[in-house]
Automatic annotation (TrEMBL):
PANTHER family: ADP-HEPTOSE--LPS HEPTOSYLTRANSFERASE 2, TETRAACYLDISACCHARIDE 4'-KINASE-RELATED
InterPro entries according to UniProt: Glyco_trans_9 (IPR002201), LPS_LOS_Heptosyltrfase (IPR051199)
Full protein name: ADP-heptose:LPS heptosyltransferase
Pfam (any one): Glyco_transf_9
Amino acid sequence: MTAPDPTIGHGIYRILVCRPNHRLGNTLLLTPLITELQALYRGAEIDIVSEGDIAHDVFKGCFNVRQVFCLPRRGFKHPIAFLRMILRIRRTRYDLVVDPSVHSGFARALTRIFRGRYKLGFSDTPTKALTHAAPKAVAGRHMAKRPVNLVRWASGIDSTAPNRYPPLAIHLNDDEHAEGWSALTALTAHPHGIQGSLRIGIFGNATGAKRYTTEWWADFMATLCAAHPTASILEIIPAHGHSMLRETWPGYYSSDIRRMAAVLAGLDLFITADCGVMHLGVAAGVPTIGLFQVTALDVYTPYGGHNTGMYTGEYPGSDVARRVLAMMETTRAHRHAAMA
């Protein structure tokens, strides 16, 4: 295993991050790494290898990001386009190539192909693909923190110390914030003219076993709304374009994740099942409560600020809503104490 080179912190101006994945959540979970690289190598320019088109929108507001290379999804079905982009990336010799994945053989294969003076990744065994192989124990559990731990290890920073981690961020600009606020205000205007009511967003969809049933959400919402009858509820509509909450509340739909993030940013609270849109809420800066029933909480839970995750198991929606309400009261008490 190669030990960290003490000169790795010098002469780093061109960085390539190799994370070929098309999922929204996994792409957003990469944003703390970009923030960390910008802090460690302030004069560097960063290119990113992703998959599909979503990464263009996620990294649009990152100042140091120059180029986002989005490989075609299922590249084996589009071999010419895939090879053309690989050759394009290989034209540049990078000072540092980062493979932030712990288990992706595809990312490791690409890291070996791309040209770089230093190549950094996780491995417990010697490999010619890397010049700097961090032990997998360095990674830790949380998916957003693993890449940060990797580059801190390579920079000689103690990754086991209680360091603060950069938050997920999508870097909305002022115009996006203003347009999102305008849309949100129109959608959540209270019918009785009540001012200052809570604006709560709900996203009721997720993939596979992570999804809660419509009946479960109805039970959850009945308890939540009984406790906050004046709250303005906004349902965030899934990509398939259908309400998960029986069209009971106003809904917002957009196929553009930056527009969706802009609307989310104006909410007081966002409640969602574990999914990519949960991470979008966190990246937009809205206090987010993620509901988990099958996924490992310590790997994907929203962190930082007033974000949190909750394991719901097989509990009915009303029980989970009561736990969420208790969480909301605790958060409100902490805010008041901080302002005092």
